[in-house]
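Appendix C: a fully annotated inverse folding record. The material below is reproduced so that readers can follow the format used throughout the book. The structure is listed first as tokens, followed by the designed sequence.
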């Protein structure tokens, strides 16, 4: 009898896991509280560690048709636009690791995943209770309806109901920063002279990122600035362009032109959590932001969720029962995701230095890394992008 897995949440992590599991022969039901998958306008970065999973699932060509591969990764000085580091990023990564680095529009990514295979999807279904019996586990919805399966995986984000079931209602940690998000029309961005690169403008206490998505239809940008935490923790909270401009008024005119040329903006307060001591208990486990919510300073939130889903499939395939499989899944993911969570916090400090001596030392170090490394791939990048969730041996 086929094993039935109940996935709670139809975001990138939930749909990625659904694709991996269905291809492994598992029966999958995805439960999502929203009325539709919807268009939440945001860019997503996927490194070779994630795109190799799409290749394994037969979805890479569909992803490539709707994404953008940057010609370079450039760090700019916020004030004068001077290049602090310039690497032919995507080209070098593909040469080194065999798979592309892509910028993707989140709705396009969800479409690729939702159309990738036959998935049973239950929309407008809010989980209120997790139910456990000796040989099965289930959820009760706000409607009173119940769904039962062999295992439950909470893919329901930083405010995960499944995580609360396992760990209690522990509040997320506010980082002290807020993110502005916007989509500048691609044609306008090109008129402004914005190249097809992954750009990061580093300033005192804040930074600004931009890159093209949706085949170049949009320039996605994100501006991180200090905040008191009053912004709603949501990707869809409306903001004001004038407020975003005020937060980046000291930045180079190119940054300000991008913000000014954007029809609307969204904002959300940035939260994460410390690494959890465990993800799995019996037939219940976690995945993606429900397990390891991280700040966006390594651009790895989506990629780590995609990794989770494929490793989950492999562990369930290779173990004699679901409980053993979920335990093995946790063992193979805890250390790596904790490392990425902690690295994301460290990058916040690196990007936001304000002391002139520290800034100068950082900038010199960055240039030296480029000058002395022909391959232009740093050790931490090798650890990050060289990981192969499809083929790397799993620990027992």
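Designed amino acids, in order:
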């Amino acid at each position: 009898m086929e094993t039935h897995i109940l996935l709670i949440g139809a975001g990138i992590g939930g749909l990625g896991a659904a694709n991996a599991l269905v291809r492994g022969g598992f029966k999958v039901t995805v439960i999502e509280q929203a009325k539709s998958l919807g268009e939440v306008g945001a860019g997503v970065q996927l490194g070779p560690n994630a795109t190799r999973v799409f290749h394994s699932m037969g979805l890479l060509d569909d992803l490539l048709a709707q994404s953008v591969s940057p010609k370079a990764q450039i760090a700019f000085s916020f004030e004068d636009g001077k290049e602090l580091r310039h690497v032919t990023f995507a080209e070098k990564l593909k040469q080194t690791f065999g798979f592309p680095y892509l910028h993707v529009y989140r709705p396009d990514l969800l479409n690729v995943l939702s159309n990738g295979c036959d998935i049973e999807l239950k929309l407008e279904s809010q989980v209120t209770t997790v139910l456990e019996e000796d040989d099965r586990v289930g959820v009760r919805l706000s409607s009173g309806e119940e769904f039962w399966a062999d295992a439950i995986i909470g893919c329901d984000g930083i405010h995960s109901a499944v995580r609360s079931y396992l760990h209690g209602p522990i509040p997320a940690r506010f980082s002290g920063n807020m993110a502005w998000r916007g989509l500048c029309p691609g044609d306008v961005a090109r008129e402004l002279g914005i190249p097809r690169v992954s750009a990061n403008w580093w300033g005192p206490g804040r930074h600004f990122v931009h890159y093209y998505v949706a085949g170049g239809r949009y320039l996605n940008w994100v501006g991180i600035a200090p905040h008191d935490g009053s912004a709603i923790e949501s990707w869809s909270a409306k903001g004001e362009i004038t407020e975003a401009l005020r937060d980046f008024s000291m930045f180079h005119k190119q940054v300000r032109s991008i913000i000014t040329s954007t029809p609307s903006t969204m904002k959300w307060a940035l939260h994460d959590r410390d690494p959890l001591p465990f993800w799995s208990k019996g037939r219940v486990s976690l995945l993606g932001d429900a397990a390891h919510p991280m700040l966006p300073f390594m651009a790895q939130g989506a990629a780590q969720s995609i990794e989770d889903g494929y490793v989950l499939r492999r562990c369930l395939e290779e173990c004699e029962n679901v409980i053993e499989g979920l335990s093995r899944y946790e063992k193979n993911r805890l250390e790596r995701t904790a490392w990425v969570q902690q690295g994301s916090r460290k990058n916040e400090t690196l990007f936001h230095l304000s002391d002139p001596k520290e800034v100068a030392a950082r900038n010199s170090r960055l240039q030296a890394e480029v000058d002395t490394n022909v391959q232009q791939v740093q050790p931490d990048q090798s650890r990050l992008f060289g990981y192969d969730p499809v083929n790397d041996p799993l620990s027992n």
